[in-house]
Design a protein that fits this description.
The chain is α+β, with helices and mostly antiparallel strands. It has four helices and twelve strands. The radius of gyration is 17 Å and the shape is globular. Mean pLDDT is 86; it is low at 1-16.
C-alpha cells in the first residue's frame, strides 16, 4: 500500500509541475510527430508493464517485447512472469497463452477493433489526430511532453477514462499510461526503441 501511495504522490507532483503547451508549441509538436508517423515502417522495443491496483500491496510487473509493422500489424510478446503473445494481423486477434492458441475476428468484435486502433495509434502517433474518438491536451515538464487523451467513445471510456502518452525530448513515445475510473492504472515503459529496422517475418507468424 505504501508503494501505491508513493506512486499517487509522485503522479500528483508531476501533474502540478506541468504547464500547457502554447498553440504554437502544439502545432510544431504535432507536425513533428505526424512527419515521423508518416515515415514509420516498423518499430520494435522492449517494455516493462506495471499494473497499479489500489487494493493490492505493491504492483504487478511484467516484461517483454513489442513489434509493429506499418500500417496495422502489431505484436505484444510477454516473457516474464509468463509466456503470452498477442498478435493483431489481417483483422484478426491471435492469442498464444503458453501454447494454448485462439483467434478472434476483429470485424465481428468492434470493441476489440477499437482497442487495436487505440494501441497502434499510441505507438505511431495517429491517436493524436483522431478528434472524432479522442480529446487531447498537451503539457510540458522539463524535457518531456505529455499528451493527455480523453476517450469520447463510451465503450473505450468504460475501460480507460484517460490515456497519457509521454514523449521524450526527441518526441518519441517512451511511456503509455492507461488510467481507469477506479484510479487503478497500467503503465508501459518502452526501452531500446528501434525505428525502421528489419524484423524477421517469423515474428508475425501466428
Amino acid at each position: 500500500m505504501r508503494i501505491i501511495k508513493l506512486a499517487v504522490f509522485f503522479i500528483s507532483v508531476a501533474t502540478f509541475a506541468q504547464t500547457p503547451l502554447t498553440e504554437a508549441e502544439t502545432i510544431k509538436f504535432k507536425e513533428i510527430v505526424s512527419k515521423r508517423s508518416d515515415g514509420l515502417e516498423s518499430l520494435s522495443s522492449d517494455f516493462i508493464q506495471t499494473k497499479y491496483i489500489k487494493m493490492m500491496k505493491g504492483a504487478a510487473i511484467s516484461s517483454g517485447s513489442l513489434y509493429y509493422l506499418a500500417p496495422n500489424i502489431l505484436k505484444w510478446e510477454y516473457r516474464q512472469p509468463y509466456n503470452y503473445k498477442i498478435l493483431f494481423k489481417d483483422s484478426k486477434l491471435f492469442i498464444d497463452d503458453d501454447g494454448y492458441k485462439s483467434v478472434t475476428d476483429l470485424k465481428s468484435n468492434k470493441l476489440f477493433e477499437k482497442l487495436v486502433t487505440l494501441i497502434s495509434g499510441s505507438i505511431n502517433g495517429n491517436l493524436l489526430e483522431d478528434k472524432k474518438n479522442y480529446e487531447v491536451s498537451y503539457f510540458k515538464t522539463a524535457n518531456l511532453i505529455s499528451a493527455v487523451i480523453i476517450p469520447r467513445d463510451p465503450n473505450i471510456r468504460d475501460m480507460f477514462n484517460q490515456i497519457v502518452l509521454l514523449f521524450d525530448r526527441n518526441l518519441v513515445v517512451i511511456s503509455v499510461r492507461l488510467i481507469e475510473d477506479s484510479g487503478d492504472y497500467t503503465e508501459i515503459d518502452f526501452k531500446s526503441i528501434r525505428f525502421n529496422q528489419p524484423i524477421h517475418p517469423k515474428v508475425f507468424q501466428n
